[in-house]
Write a structure and sequence with these properties.
There is one protein chain. By secondary structure, the chain is of the alpha+beta class. The chain has 2 domains: about 130 residues, Aspartate Aminotransferase, domain 1 (Alpha-Beta Complex); about 80 residues. It has 9 helices and 5 strands, in the order αααβαααββαββαα. β4 and β5 form a beta hairpin. α1 runs antiparallel to α3.
Length: about 210
């Protein structure tokens, strides 16, 4: 009964069939911050006397198809627990431990699960850079809060031409990556996550281009 109530609660709030992923269980459908919060609250509902699961605020909305298919993890409770672990990972080592556990219990990761793992890795990286928001805004990707030093500003303009810096609201807008400069479709899934990771590493964390690419 507890599971049914928790799942109905998710549906009422607009997350849809979050666990199955066939319809709107994708990060791009609800935004990863809401996605994480809903899952965390659903897990809390399944615990005797459990309170809300604390998840540090992080808003990531990128075009990524990432979820745990029921064909991969058949039990709803097990999927919720896996979502919770990935959502609460605060270090790369924790993410690697979760990957090892999933592989050991359920076999090789399907592409959509690999994407979910990459989102978890990116959340760790973004938090390390002091970000709380990485979202698509029109033809740009918005990063906030950001306060750039002069050297970071120069690197941003050189590596990502067309970027807009808004110091008053501590925001940077970087042209969203596309498959082609003219008429190209937006880059998605693992490619957009790799792009976002390179951006954060190169501009905000001060890594060299070679290090960021690695």
């Amino acid at each position: 009964a507890g599971m049914q109530v928790a799942m109905k609660d998710l549906e009422i709030r607009g997350a849809g069939n979050l666990l199955g992923g066939e319809q709107s269980g994708h990060i791009e459908g609800v935004g990863f911050d809401l996605y994480v919060r809903l899952v965390g609250e659903a897990v809390a509902e399944l615990r005797d006397g459990g309170g809300p699961v604390e998840v540090p605020p992080m808003k990531i909305e990128l075009p990524v198809d990432a979820h745990l298919p029921h064909e991969y993890i058949p039990g709803e409770r097990l999927r919720l627990e896996a979502y919770r672990k990935l959502a609460q990972a605060e270090a790369d080592e924790q993410v690697e431990e979760i990957v090892a556990e999933l592989t050991d219990r359920y076999g090789p990761l399907p592409e959509v699960v690999t994407n979910l793992v990459e989102v978890a890795r990116f959340r760790v990286l973004a938090r390390r850079a002091g970000l709380s928001e990485v979202t698509v805004q029109g033809n740009f990707v918005r990063l906030a809060p950001v306060e750039l030093r002069e050297s970071q500003m120069l690197r941003l303009k050189r590596v990502y031409p067309g970027s807009l810096v808004k110091p008053a609201v501590r925001t940077v807008l970087v042209p969203a990556p596309k498959q082609a400069r003219i008429g190209g479709k937006p880059v998605r899934d693992s490619e957009v996550l790799q792009w976002a990771s390179r951006l954060v590493r190169a501009v905000l964390l001060g890594e060299t281009e070679a290090e960021a690419a690695g």
